Amino acid sequence: MSHPLPLYSSLDTLISFEFSGHFVYQLQEGMLAHVSESEVGHVFTQREWFLIVGVLISSQVLLAAVMLFCLVIMLNKVYRLYAAVTLFSCGLLIVSPLYLLPNWGVVLPWWELLRLMVALLCTHWAARFLPIAQTNNQALIVYASQTGSAKYLAQRLHDTTHALMDIACISTLTEQTLQRYQRVFFVVSTYGQGEAPDSARRFVNTLQEANSAASHTQFSVLALGDRTYQTFCAFGHYLSELLEKKGYQRAIPTTEIDRMDPQGVAHWWQQVGELLGIHTASELFEYDDYTVVANECLNPGQVHRLAHRVTLFCANARYEAGDLLAVQPDQKDEHERLYSIASYEDNTIELLVRQHIRTDGTIGLASGMLSQLTPGNRISASVREHVTFHPKENVPWIMIAAGTGLAPFISFLKKRQASQDKAPCWLFFGEQYEEHDDYFAQDLLSLQELGVLNRFDRAWSRSDGVYVPNLLQQSRNDIRHWVTEQGANVYVCGSREGFGQSVLMTLQDILPEPQWQSQFHTDLY
């Protein structure tokens, strides 16, 4: 309509070519008119016309390729049902008059909308309700991870079998899946006060409600934990007892692993290999070589609570905000230590490390090593994916930290700055002295000035006698509004004892119960 065209008494003399049963007329000034039943439908430039035709033909070719692929896949009986549903859906679309360039109107005919709806419903049904494909493998390794350690270990174990066993997250597990295998090996972490990792709760609830019955499936549990906690490996033992109670056969006794002890893992894995008749690798943990770029003490006045900002470089370092770095101490027979990453740039990793002093006055092994590093030193470390603590995009964040628990939120905010995400961010931070313990002060000030960090509340317990739960109570109405009305996600990081327990109790008082399932995330240690 934006191109005024002269009227013609006879269109027959202007026929350019026929397309899909309709005539296309060549008008002056390079314009094309699509005519149906002697009525002009749409007027295009030649460029527009060829673009439309190209898109329609390309989509038909793509659908035809998918249909051909489905025909090949149908030769495999495992995937035959999936292929048939996809073939049917593509068939509905490829014969649609949408691809025949009809006399388009403002609204598609109702039967075309119905055709599209049926195709989409078929695809949705195939994705959600068709049974999981059968497997030729007789063994399955299942991981239940909170900080990523169990997932990492299970993947490493799986890789050493050269695909002779399957691997799955416990969140995808069902009783039917479990019973299809002769042997199932669980690698599970214990979280909090002996609790199951978030990913394991649905399966545990399902298993609790299931009727007990004899099963040919054998199982073994590798329970990961930290012996300094009273609830050491509690979930691993609970899962093992529950499986046995429901009729599954114990193949190898439950094995406890203290802080990813490599010798304990290797011994259990050797037993698994003997059971399956396969050779298992002795070296299960892989570490990269990191070079120290800088090491800055952020609170030199706090002699007994020194905090260091350590910057490391590794050309292969890839990670997401919220991930952890597993550091291997100099003594190779010692357990690795996990630290939150306080940066958001590939290849470079920053850590906020508290120099741990034991009750006997000696310095902690890993924290002592990290705090004494100088530029040019090298350490062995490995990134651990921490999926349950990855920040969600395009939603507000309420971040609550104490001490070195601030580290992941520096990474969160730098990610938001890099992605130019405009959702608001609110940070609560607690430490002892304002004059000593204002970590990453310049970085946070810059993020405030850029509008990335919108609200920032600090509690100085020794300077002002104020703690983080006090700040939460003072802002309870705003916190509830952010979470219930704006859909904010709440993230808590810091020591479980003292800080973590008091913050959780305060938030339970402030927030309604439904928000705890999907919008609440913790990394407490």
Automatic annotation (TrEMBL):
Keyword annotations: Electron transport, Flavoprotein, FMN, Membrane, Transmembrane, Transmembrane helix, Transport
Glycoprotein found in the keyword field: no
EC identifiers of the protein: 1.6.2.4
Transmembrane segments: 49-75, 81-101
Flavodoxin-like domain span: 139-273
SUPFAM superfamilies: Ferredoxin reductase-like, C-terminal NADP-linked domain, Flavoproteins, Riboflavin synthase domain-like
Flavoprotein recorded as keyword: yes
InterPro entries referenced in this protein's UniProt entry, alphabetically: FAD-bd_FR_type, Flavdoxin-like, Flavodoxin/NO_synth, Flavoprot_Pyr_Nucl_cyt_Rdtase, Flavoprotein-like_sf, FNR_nucleotide-bd, OxRdtase_FAD/NAD-bd, Riboflavin_synthase-like_b-brl
Domain FAD-binding FR-type positions: 285-392
UniProt-listed PANTHER family: NADPH--CYTOCHROME P450 REDUCTASE, NITRIC OXIDE SYNTHASE-RELATED
Record-given protein name: NADPH--hemoprotein reductase
Taxonomy of the source species: Bacteria, Pseudomonadati, Pseudomonadota, Gammaproteobacteria, Oceanospirillales
